[in-house]
Fold each of these.
Amino acid sequence: MESPELSFTLAYFVFSLCFVFTPNEFRSAGLTVQNLFSSWLGSEDVGFIQYHVRRTSITLLVHSALPLGYYLGMCIAAPEKNLGSFHQVSDSWRAFLLLSLCLQLTSWTLVIYWSRRRWHNHPISRALQSHIQPPHSSWGSVATSVNDEFRRIDKFATGAPGARVIVTDSWVLKVTTYHVYMALQTDCHVTVTESRQHQLTPDSTSPAQILTLTVGSINPAVRPFDIRLISTEYAELREKLHAPIRNAANVVIHQTITELFLETFRAQVDLNRPYTLPSGQEVEPCIGCMQAPAGTKLLRLCHAEGADTESECQQCFCRPMWCLSCLGRWFASRQDQQRPETWLSSRVPCPTCRAKFCILDICVVH
């Protein structure tokens, strides 16, 4: 029969490991620093920088208290050791207690130092100070810029809470347990350095390719940092990232069938006849993404191209309302996913008026 001391040690070790490297089960149960101290941390959407300054500080304090918690737990689990009496415990337990207290005291001292001058000494604040340049006159102004862009819905965000990657219009951010790495898009360059194949992932049973990218900056005060993402998210990252991406390791990046189709789709549409807007008509934003201009118009041209004598395509009378990317994704979503070889020759309904069209009927607006 196992002793209470061994049982508690194993249980506390597993709990501590899961609390620091939080699995989905702990996150679902609310056993995270973010959830336990949510009332003090505030909202990430309201103040991204302020939230993570507080989060990293309280995380350091809580994690450094785990050894002391183990000692206090052993006082209950193994009362015969007399751990509650400092003078009666063995030298090894006395040394463990002193180290635990020193670790907790050091953490509190460090957090108090960080909090001086309104958190001016915090590592995240120091990272922001590296980016003080016009039009920003202080690190608080830089923080406001990051907060404003994080609130936008068009940002790219991926990864687990302990290693999140966020790309906004001006910033590349990596959120870790104890720090937030950041680089200005105008100053940084990204390099694909490594690729790993994983047969199983937490979110899928199919194999996944994990890419490692190094974000460097021409700003000497900004240290390079690595970000990781699944290869299927690489295309979305590339669309949001304005900085150049180099492939130093000659990594072959696997794409989804939809992404491969979109590349062919764009190439084919570029060969079609362009559409010139009538005078006085302006290009509106795409109603699918509300970001890119509506750069496509559907015209029944396949019969003129000689594709079919009796074409099933219909005339669409809608004004330009969709960008090429959104229309391509709509086209792919209406296909038989088991027969990708038929996608280019298929016909789908217009997403607005339901008139059938094929790829030859799509014109780029000039």
Amino acid sequence: MGELPLDINIQEPRWDQRTFLGRARHFFTVTDPRNLLLSGAQLEASRNIVQNYRAGIVTPGLTEDQLWRAKYVYDSAFHPDTGEKVVLIGRMSAQVPMNMTITGCMLIFYRQTPTVVFWQWLNQSFNAVVNYSNRSGDAPITVRQLGMAYVSATTGAVATALGLKSLTKHLPPLVGRFVPFAAVAAANCINIPLMRQRELQVGIPVTNEQGQRLGHSVAAAKKGIFQVVISRICMAIPAMAIPPVIMDTLEKKDFLKRRPWLGAPLQMGLVGFCLVFATPLCCALFPQRSSIHVSRLEPELRAQIQEQNPSIEVVYYNKGL
């Protein structure tokens, strides 16, 4: 068997990102919870394979499938812009197990105010870690900015949940089951922009088609953050809308009335099943490497690009997750 050629483009995903199906296959791999079980040594080995290959060094005996596997292991644990190892619960592969637990508990314990406050707080704490870990660009964010974003998002989520809970007291029980989703949707609109506020201040890197950095753009940051907010809200819809309807029906049946202890694990399982598909499919709604027309950039950056590269009409950026 000959040595692996050096013309495999591992800067890009293995599947065509111009199609939804290609992006879905990519994110089913990125969000695979089994990546959480990999040891530090396995992560470092994958990083070495990827970095060596990018430097023109092929690990002896390496196959193309092994190279792509190493690339996806690397992508699952390291930030694409900074190269830092992402904290375990901040990785996209932790989305399904973590959200299954937290979302399941939000849907189970939605009746009492203390439990509503606790699980909304825990959810926003987790979201803050995820949003920071999967931000776009390499611009630093201060501890003060992180703290303000965290407090604002958590306060917004809890206030929304408690406000809606009080409004639905006299409505059918099924309506009350959807309060957690409304709170999560509102919090996403607060948490993501605040945790990524640095991008809105200094912009995110934009590049040409070959990946050469051309400057930083706030306009690209706004578009990327908007796309992520939409993806996150859509991601929550199946897991927070389907199980409540099913559970509301099942809890009226004799089977669950005789076995009330089955309610919690059943609801948790339904949430997990929805998230296994919703997480990668909603991440795939927009390309990870998104594009924006030069005419929509800031005047200074637009003028700079048109002066130095007059043939460029579209630039690219990492929208974050």
Amino acid sequence: MALRNHSTITEFILLGLSVDSHVQVLLFVLFLGIYLFTIMGNLSMLLVIREDPHLHTPMYFFLSHLSFMDFCLSTAIVPKLLENLLSQSKTISVGGCLAQVFFVFDIGGTEVCLLSAMAYDRYAAICHPLLYGRVMNNQLYMQLVWGSWSLGFLDALINIPLTMNLDFCEAKIIHHYSCELPSLFPLSCSDVSTSLTVLVCSTLLHGGGTFFLIFFSYVRIVSTILSISSTSGRSKAFSTCSSHLTALSFFYGSAFLRYLMPTSGSPLELIFSIQYGVVTPLVNPLIYSLKNKEVKNALRRTLGKCLQ
């Protein structure tokens, strides 16, 4: 049923990042290195959080799921990019393209929800430190995590079936290195107005809801930090949420701008896609390890155990 309307087109062509063969070799080496470091970094974070009892707290439970999502997001995008950099045909089947669209949409939507849950966690820790254990109890943070996964899946479930029912005729060139939902609409010979409306509305609703929670949390956090009399106290309070703010700025803006801006094949689209789909999964483990004493100490303890 999913592919019955795609009989005239069985595959798409991904133009990628460059048509120069020498540049493609350099890009292959670059993105292979990025992918390997991404996998190692996120798997290391998962291992450290799992093995170190000091990190069995709500914040690091959220972080473990963030690392798993970054691992999945990078794996959904980069291997096909690497294959096409070495391939002459640079094709992807319609089914494979729709599968990639689904996983990127699902994981990206889940990550946005999780980042907003992490903002609420920082709000509870900074604004209500004495009540933190009661506010962010085991039941609540489990609900926030599984709610994030459910909302991401629901968002993908709303958008992707509409795309699966589109007809793709003669045009089959995607001016991109991966399949993303906005890039498929110009290739369809069906009416895409409904699909486009649903995409914009769901993105605004998804983004607006999570942005409101993040904005509310950080307004209260900043207000609380400014009310602290000592400079060292303000600095310590701010340092507890600086890693989250950095991760948020890397992913949030670029992902929503990519899905809301008109598809034109411009370099800006590629930059936004690379930032949220390739760069963010790479830098998140670095952000949370280099700027976090607890994680650095846990890494030393875990390495010590492994070397014994």
Amino acid sequence: MLKLHQMHTFTYLEWVSRVRVNTQAVLKRAQSIQGQKLPKKQWQSAWLLKAVTCIDLTTLSGDDTPSNVHRLCMKAIQPVRHDLLRKMDMHDKGISTAAVCVYPSRVADAVRSLKAANSSIPVASVATGFPAGQTPLESRLQEVRSAVNDGATEIDIVINRMLALTGQWEAMFNEIRLFREACGDAHMKTILAVGELETLSNVYKASMVAMMAGSDFIKTSTGKEAVNATYPVAIVMLRAIRDYFLCTGHKVGFKPAGGIRTAQESLVWLTLIKEELGSEWLHPHLFRLGASSLLADIERQIYHEVTGQYAALHELPMA
């Protein structure tokens, strides 16, 4: 699908600049994944619980307050009603979301809430001028350092799309390396904002540069663009992850984000990851779902499987 030159022939940046993506092959693969049969009944519930454990439960709103961040954290600790988990014999399996994700100014609130609840769920913070990434470099670096100092153990950075669109791959690599250093021991997820990269070839190139620069994850979107996580884009990013693993032996994680709202969609994403990268990637240390409203629909589907009826709005806790 990807017409690649041999890496040993060029430096890595020269190699990246020569990559071309076969768009029609990507679209055909995306169409096939959407047409596959998905798990049903108890198997569906098991896969949905797997999806829950991979969610970065997120609030990135202008009206975020300590109180709604606290509520988010409590939901992350108990994402599915205890009585429903008990009926599935999963009440003692430590089901929680993978992380909570907030703005840098709300990191301390999240850390405080989780610590008070004696929870080890990681706090992730967006940074580097999220969502546009257009603030001065030093401001973006300071935002990363501030979030880490407040207790964030995962940082979701955004790339400077101008560098990708103008083919300045070395400059983009150098910026991401600086963010990597500022993160210290915190995991770094690099948001490509794929809806603004114009071509699938740019998506692949940006994916490779981000991984070469030390990203622990590559992430599709901020959730603020007109186009967010789509299957064609995901396939290109997953193939980049696979190529990088085959070349280096290093596994990089993947996080689709933006517009993922239904339980059925989460099953498609899990299926795609399993088919493209294998079961080893179906764990929170290598796969995350960035979502704010997805959890509510997953809990609704689990309620239906357990009780045989759909929950009224007042019967499930707010996410």
